[in-house]
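Comment on both lines for my students:
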Amino acid sequence: MVKDDTILQVKDVSYRYNDAQENEYVLKNVNFNFDLGKIYAIKGKSGSGKTTLLSLITGLEPCNMGEILYNKQNIKEMNLDRYRNSEIGIVFQSYNLIPFLNTLENITLSMDINGKNIKNKKEKALELMESVGLNKNMADRKILKLSGGEQQRVAIARSLSYNPKVIIADEPTGNLDKETENDILEIFKRLAHEENKCVIIVTHSPNVANQVDVVYELTKPKK
């Protein structure tokens, strides 16, 4: 039974590459539910399909076997550009920031792409910076002048610029030391527990898995 606060469902999802053999699956009969107000970890060895699952959830790869439901609607029936630019925020291990722009410009650019009517984008970006622990004096600093932890904070602020309900983070602490990893985790926990967002983290880190609400583990399907 689906709960009222379930925002995202992975239902009977299987996936194999077009050139794969008939019984050679990357994912096989995966069923996960994700609720608002919780932080999740998805674990699994290399080749277990973690990145593929994220591609399916974000609509970057079509889900041809099973369903991905957002707010009870199959994402196949949605405008996927709008879905990715409005409903979900994505945070990458490598940050994916634009190096020749400064901190403020990276965040406001995301607002421009999204197209939401935000009255004062600079003011909103500064608020987001503060919310992830960045001083306002970093607003004009170029990305390459920031530490890895600071860049990841910018990436999180950018993902929050259009207030999505779901935050999907792909190995967001993989390049960080343990202390910085814990700082980033505290931001994600606050987003889930205080701002009622659904946070999904793909991770290899036992430290991350030990601090989330729910851990889902993927295993490589048997042939």
